[in-house]
Amino acid sequence: MSNLSDLTISQAKELLLNRSISSVELTKFFFDKISNFKNLNCFITETFDQALKMSKISDEKYKLKKDIGLMEGIPIGMKDLFCTNQIKTTAGSKILKNFIPFYESTVSKNLWEEGAVLLGKTNLDEFAMGSANTTSFFGNVVNPWKSKNDIDKKLVPGGSSGGSASAVAADLCLAATGSDTGGSIRQPASFCGLVGMKPTYGRCSRFGMIAFASSLDQAGPITKDVLDSSIMLKSMCSYDKKDSTSSKMEIPDFPKIVKLGVKGIRVGIPDEYIVDGLNSNVNDNWQKGIEWLKSEGAEIIEINLPHTQSALPTYYILAPAEASANLARYDGIRFGLREIGKDLDEVYKNTRASGFGNEVKRRIMIGTYVLSAGYYDAYYLKALKVRKLISDDFSKAFEKCDCILTPTTPGVAFGIGEKQDDPLEMYLNDVLTVPASLAGLPAISVPSGLNDEGLPIGLQIVARPFDEETCFKAAFVIEQLSNFNKLKN
Amino acid sequence: MSIDNSVVKKIANLSKINLSEKESENLKHELNKILDWVDDLKKVDTKMVEPMLSVFNENMKMRDDKVELTNTDEILSNAPDKKENFFVVPKVIE
Amino acid sequence: MSYFIRGHESKWEVVLGLEVHAQINSLSKLFSPSSTGYGAEPNSQVNLIDAGMPGALPVINQECVKQAVITGLGLNAKINLKSIFDRKNYFYPDLPQGYQISQFENPIVGSGHLIIEAEEGTKKIGITRLHLEQDAGKSIHDQDFENSFIDLNRSGCALMEIVSEPDLRSPSEVSLYIKKLRSILRYLGSCDGNMEKGNLRVDVNVSVRRFDAELGTRCEIKNINSIKFIQQAIEYEARRQVKLIESGKIVEQQTRLFDSQKGETRAMRSKEESHDYRYFPDPDLPPLILEKKMIEDLKLQLPELPDKKKIRFIETYGIKKYDAEILVSEKEVAEYFEKLVSDRDPKMVVTWLTGELFSYLNKKNLDNPQSAISVEKFGELLDLINDGTLSNRLAKELFVEFIESNMSASELVKKKGMVQISDENEIINMIETVLDQNQKMLEEYRSGKEKLFGFFVGQIMKISNGKANPQMVNTLLTKRLKK
Ligand SMILES: [Mg+2]
Ligand SMILES: [Zn+2]
Fold first, then answer.
1. CA spacing 20 to 30 A to C412: which of A298, C161, C251, C363?
2. Quick one: which of C101, C79, C77 has its CA closest to C88?
């Protein structure tokens, strides 16, 4: 049992099925790991009691060989953006530091129904606003990866699902949930050498997931490999009557198709993704990715996504605008933090001043501004129109190709404290992930190599709406040919 | 500089966030920088483009008119101040 | 132009437009399955959506959409096949999400109209639009010195906001408009229209202008809960505006409240700061797309509305326009009338219904005649009057007692021993008795003092204890005196 650390979901399930280990044993193993790696600050809330109860139930099912779910007995982390019944849910914010929901998010409920075991609620950027997990009220998360050149330098795990990514990378759990608004699953997955899948908008229910930008938010899995990603996504998504933007599209049996290969699949390569600041190691890795897919029978096609450079500014109008309204409910009246004031207006203003961190305030302010009288047309409406152009770019590209291969991020994990002075510099982390978010497309980040410092690089595969399958197939090929799992050790 | 002190004040008021002088000053600069950057969009020709409200293309599903019971204790369970099943706030003058 | 405000310099016309908030008659709320029931314990009909809890999402109630469409059709309005829900952003303790889900640029119902019978005649009042939106909760401000209390039971209930064109010109037109709108809503069943319970709430936009001048600046008076107060508020507000303008000041666009105790309007404190609602499409809700077929089907199911019913009543029953207007204003009254009038004399039915029964309903504060007396019970009474068994006068005298008793009309007549005497011989006997006792009078009558006819009738009625059939007395007495 010495190498429980390296287990994937699929491997663990095999051991559980043939009863070489029990879920309780596995779960307890992770308790120790979590306790030993507190310095990474991955978890806001640990739920060990809950986990023991859940794993015992799973063991019972394995014993009876009855009702064994896709994630039966698998200990996971849950991003603290998903409301969990009677378990504190903070969204990484002071304003919700004592909030205890009396309801369960649909994504977490689906996972429990498939037998997953909750180890704890993972740290995140406050209200999922950030790309380095530096905006959490509960402190930075540290990436377990180290630069060869500077062993002591603490690196960011990426964000906003940084706690989830770091926890999986450090083997503190077998997998974790994330949420992605502009790259918050894919970017941390890439920084931590993991697979991060953002499904098509509407695949996973948003019910009970604390909203950042409703037209963009999507839940998804962060896992150690592509097969796990497909298993966990299948467990997470469902049509949900409680979410008006939940899709009725049939949900394929993702794990079945992962290994089918890319023969005949047309892979688009967009010129426009050679952005300023694209790291040369990353660019080289991208070229390798192209070759790997080609070698497995994919057809490589040059495509154009002409409005790519407008995506980030568009995103930084739309997401804050929606956020400014979504975060209006944090007013200190029905739940959450309340600061005192001489009248109601002061209660509001003091509560929100004290409860929100700087990045959240910045985005609320920007969002309020672009929606306010006199600026709506110039900013918000304009951005909605550019969003259409960006989406149309993809539609046109998908007439020629079946998926698009790009790097996930222009660079790799950077030091904690870097890029803090200028919000714009931080925003640029998302330049390659945001376009697919704006178009609501499925996109996966798969680890594909290491840079000169030995830090992970990720490649992104974007596909047509509801074609997660092509993402998985291409990602699996890259996973195999990059030999990432060997590189890692 | 499209955002001056009075605009920061106005937005902060609409957003109901108290800002210290220093915070206001910082935010003024940051917001201006961000806005200058997003101003790039003005160059994009959108004359004939329909605004995209959502990427979600399915019709809105509707619920049947059925009642589900609710629980007062649950709804009040996180309230910072409550009395006799009411949420309590400092007095509002209309 | 019958209504105007007389200022120092000139006559001022009052221009009025209405925003009516009508709560939709649905079991559950617009975007949540909590109950809409009235008068429940505080915060007992509130789920996470209504309380704006983190992660809550709205899901629309089909019934509310249907009722909005039906109401649009009843207001002769265009139904928009595509409409969009927007967020209207502002902070208020009874607005849990920090925004109200409403419809801004693309409402579910576009322009329509309704007809009122104003003094000068029939007048068409334009409806600008009807949109769906969430209601807010209730804040209670007067229970405590330091605090306000928030009850979210009403939060999220479905409202139709029905906006009129500024086509109204007097408090009485406003009153007619509200009554007509309320009547249509009740016919359609989309709203109870009960102003006291707050399920019909009226905001009035008031401005004044010199005749035929451009529109003046308007003030909105919010949430006035009776037609009487609405009329008072308009009068006060119009005079206030005239005074301001004539003294060289300007009218500021404002939201104002009506203080019914003082009979004044005053600017709302909480609305003083200029509002910037930052409307934008709610990303939680896709556009609402309606099928033509659904609208066509609803159109076919639409009930006969008051205007049409009125014309039919006039044509079918030959009753006066004024009476028809009264009969159709409440759906229940119209239905009651139609049941009652079948094979009875319409004039008699109208007289009894709008006279005796209405005054009883008024006294008891009832809307529905059926709740006071069944059609069958009332009908039997009318039949007994009609065939002469019961005199009109007696029936009126005993009407209240009759309604409140369990007796049928014939039982009442029996019990009170007041079956009308319609036996010819019996009446002739009475006539003879009276003439015998009044020989002197008879002589005077015969010598030309014909006025005495009435005296004889009176005497006959007296000795019959009022039971003699008056018509028969008349006929037989005339016959006898001619001898
Ligand atoms: Mg209004
Ligand atoms: Zn309204």
1. C363
2. C101
Cβ of B55 within 8 Å of Cβ of A247? The answer is no
Q: Which of A398, A361, A367, A401 is nearest to A93 (CA)?
A: A361
Phi, psi of B84 (to 5 degrees): 45, 50
pLDDT level of residue A1 (50, 70, 90 thresholds): very low
Q: Which residues contact C428 (CB under 8 A, 6 or more apart)?
A: C476, C480
SS3 C187: helix
For chain A, helix, strand, coil in percent to 5 are: 45, 15, 40
Tokens, residue C118: 């104003």
Closest partner residue to C96 (CB to CB) among A99, A102, A334 is A334
Q: Which of residues 23-62 of B touch C (CB under 8 A)?
A: 53-54, 56, 58-62
Of the two residues C141 and B72, the one the predictor is more confident about is B72
Note the pLDDT tens digit of each residue in C158-190: 999 999 999 999 999 999 999 999 999 999 999
Determine whether C146 is exposed, middle or buried from the number of CB atoms within 10 Å of its CB (0-12, 13-18, 19+). exposed
Catalytic residue (one of A23, A108, A160, A179): A160
pTM of the model: 0.92
Q: Inter-chain contact C57–A99, Cβ cutoff 8 Å?
A: no
- As for how many domains chain A has, the answer is 2
**Per-domain boundaries in chain C:** 12-297, 303-416, 424-481
Chains that touch C (3 or more CB pairs under 8 A): A, B
For residue C220, give the ligand nearest its CA: 1
Position A251 in a domain: yes
Beta-strand pair A75-79/A175-180:
parallel
Instruction: Write out chain B residues lying below 8 Å of A349, CB-based.
Output: 16-18
Q: Which fold has domain C424-481?
A: Arc Repressor Mutant, subunit A (1.10.10)
What integer pLDDT is reported at residue C303 of this predicted model? 95
CATH, domain B5-43, list 3.40.50, 1.10.20, 1.10.3210, 1.25.40 = 1.10.20
Verify whether the Cβ–Cβ distance C28 to B68 is below 8 Å. yes
Average pLDDT over residues A182-193: 98
Tokens at residue B34, please? 């961000």
Is a pLDDT exceeding 70 seen at residue C272? no
